[in-house]
Specification:
The complex is a heterodimer of chains A (about 325) and B (about 250).
Chain A: H1 4-21, H2 27-50, H3 60-77, H4 82-104, H5 109-129, E1 139-140, H6 154-181, H7 183-193, H8 195-200, H9 205-231, E2 233-234, H10 241-254, H11 259-279, H12 284-298, H13 322-330
Antiparallel strand pairs in A: 1-2
Helix pairs in contact in A: 1-6, 2-6, 2-9, 2-10, 2-11, 3-4, 3-9, 4-9, 6-7, 6-9, 7-9, 10-11, 11-12
Chain B: E1 5-14, E2 17-27, E3 32-36, H1 43-50, E4 58-63, E5 66-67, H2 73-79, E6 81-83, H3 96-105, H4 123-133, H5 149-161, E7 167-171, H6 182-193, E8 199-203, H7 207-213, E9 216-221, E10 224-229, H8 231-234, H9 238-245
Parallel strand pairs in B: 3-8, 3-9, 6-7, 7-8
Antiparallel strand pairs in B: 1-2, 1-4, 4-5, 9-10
Helix pairs in contact in B: 3-4, 3-5
The chains are: A mainly alpha (about 325), B alpha/beta (about 250).
Chain lengths: ~325, ~250
């Protein structure tokens, strides 16, 4: 851990560089990068949760909770500030995660995944039926501002949203890196490996899953706020299962070993989607599917395994017992 | 002197199978008690009930006078009973030191840090100190998946020791260890656990290990206690020889 601080400093500089890089990006890529950063944020939450051995197929629930929460508060109280909207989205997602987390943490594996999916679809159904929330059509919100500044130039507005989403996602990435290296991060991996032994050591596996679940919900809520700000419209599609599935795709592509991989995976997925949609408009889903299959086949541990290699496999197997080891040493 | 563990009238049935039949047992501080019996005699069921994994159908289990019969394994561990397993229950993808560090984190379960590195605040030092006691310090940074069965067994026992338990339950500590190494391994276990666990209960099938290391033997048969006492007396008991050891000594 001696190298932790310089590494974090590099990450801060990378976030700053990525933000400033937006100044020279073509306008059309700004919105693409904003979506990629927003998707990376929610996928990062899925990775945080996956470290406990659980995958949520229903993060659309918190994505929609964040989006609808921001939209309703923005329209009711006239809050247009992008940072405030992001925080409101994170709080809405986090509060819902705190309510659902302790209930769902008792399940694991496919049951956990299916329950999250079911809850998101219940929420979707409620949104579709709710006329007060615009039903299946949803409703619109105004253009976001930043610290009192209103952006009338579309490029400036796009850059502002790009900058806020990249900084937020970058800071979330730094926080996740610290979390992964922390005591809680290590114990989370232990829960994934053997939750019964964790209990025998005096730890509560459910509590650890709940904490990670709530962190994932916070990230999803903030991501929902960004999606709302980018589209300036919200509808029940935010909670639909295909929306949740896309975020799981990003997490699967990234693997759970690297925070940076989540950002790369999200950006690559958006690029593949955009270009295949542009050049192969009728078969772009096929291209996307082949791309995903390729990554799963050739990088089963995700894109992160390209730069995080497990050098432990090169080590000679240890002797059967310490006594045998002493004998080997004596020979 | 009050016993560390006091079990009274413990019953447990799995359908028609009687795994515990009115078991009553006191274990005093400082004893090294060996539980013996054929497969299915009820030894592991007893260990599972004492550690909270199984709830008894009836009867009571008290640790230092506190009823723990309905507590979860987590609470039982916090109150002072730790265990190791016949098949080591480890975190395969983590290193030996990380496994121990998780056990050290179990000491402060309500205050897990979100930001302090996993190896900080003496967690790694404590892990290495325990591994050193078992002669495993050189393997601290090896993932468990690369360690052999005998080493895993010792790491499993080391993890159970982290809490300095009042009562340490070892489920077949030498199973999987070769005949020529079993005494050396058990010597190492007894020496390593001595500073932290004054009272040890170990399940064992090897009567040579039992007679050498136990100062009391409890023989199980069909969920009942067949004999209980000094190893040299119990192991010569005709019923124990007939139903448990098969004449071995």
């Amino acid at each position: 851990m001696k190298h932790g601080r310089p590494h974090l400093l590099v990450m801060v500089l990378l976030v700053a560089a990525a933000t400033l890089f937006g100044r020279v990006l073509p306008t059309w890529t700004l919105s693409l990068a904003t979506v990629a950063a927003s998707n990376a944020l929610i996928a990062l939450g899925i990775v945080v949760l996956a470290r406990t051995g659980n995958v949520s197929f229903g993060q659309g629930l918190f994505f929609a909770a964040g989006g609808y929460g921001v939209a309703l508060i923005a329209n009711a109280w006239g809050i247009t500030d992008a940072v405030a909207q992001m925080l409101i989205g994170a709080i809405c997602g986090g509060l819902l995660g705190l309510v659902i987390g302790p209930l769902i943490a008792r399940y694991s594996g496919i049951f956990f995944g299916m329950l999250t999916l079911a809850l998101s679809m219940v929420f979707y159904g409620a949104l579709v039926k709710s006329t007060a929330l615009g039903g299946s059509d949803g409703f619109n919100v105004g253009r976001p501002s930043l610290f009192g500044m209103i952006f009338t130039d579309p490029r400036e507005a796009d850059f502002m949203l790009y900058a806020v989403s990249v900084v937020t996602t970058g800071l979330a990435g730094i926080a996740a890196t610290i979390l992964f290296r922390s005591e809680l991060g290590l114990v989370s991996l232990a829960v994934r490996e053997n939750n019964l032994r964790v209990e025998y050591l005096g730890l509560s596996a459910n509590r650890i899953v709940t904490i990670n679940f709530t962190i994932a919900a916070v990230f999803a809520g903030a991501s929902g706020a960004f999606a709302l700000m980018a589209q300036r419209h919200i509808d029940p599609q935010f909670a639909y299962w295909t929306t949740s599935g896309e975020f799981v795709f990003v997490a699967v592509l990234a693997g759970y070993q690297s925070v940076a991989a989540v950002f790369v995976a999200s950006l690559v997925l958006e690029l593949v989607r955009s270009f295949s949609n542009l050049y192969l408009p009728n078969t772009w889903q096929l291209v996307l599917g082949v791309f995903l299959l390729g990554v799963i086949l050739f990088l089963p541990r995700g894109i992160g395994s390209l730069w995080i290699r497990d050098g432990r496999k090169l080590i000679k197997p240890a002797a059967a017992t310490p006594i045998a080891a002493e004998r080997e040493a004596a020979l | 002197m009050n016993p560390v563990l006091s079990v009274r009238g413990l019953d447990k049935r799995f359908g028609a199978v009687v795994a515990a039949d009115a078991l009553s047992l006191d274990i005093a501080a400082g004893q090294k008690v060996s539980l013996i019996g054929a497969n299915g005699a009820g030894k592991t069921t007893f260990v599972n009930m004492v550690t909270g994994y199984l709830k008894p159908d009836s009867g009571s289990i008290a640790l230092d006078g506190v009823d723990i019969g309905r507590h979860s394994p987590r609470n039982v561990a916090r109150l002072g009973i730790s265990r190791s397993f016949q098949i080591p229950q480890l975190f395969i993808g983590l290193t030996a030191a990380e496994n121990l560090a998780v056990a050290v984190s179990g000491m402060r379960a309500h205050a897990l840090s979100f930001y302090s590195p996993a190896a900080a605040h003496g967690r790694r030092d404590k892990a290495i100190e325990l591994l050193e006691r078992f002669g495993l310090a050189d393997l601290a940074d090896r993932p468990i998946s690369e360690l052999a069965g005998g080493v895993r067994k010792l790491v499993d026992i080391a993890m159970a020791l982290v809490r300095r338990p009042k009562l340490l339950l070892l489920d077949e500590p030498t199973s999987g260890v070769s005949a020529e190494e079993k005494f050396a391994t058990m010597d190492r276990v007894i020496h390593a656990v001595a500073p932290d666990a004054a009272t040890i209960v170990f399940v064992e099938h090897d009567m040579e290990i039992v007679s050498r290391y136990a100062d009391r033997v409890v023989a199980f048969y069909n969920g009942r206690i067949l004999a209980d006492g000094d190893p040299h007396v119990v192991l010569k008991d005709p019923e124990v020889r007939r139903y448990v050891t098969g004449g071995a000594q």
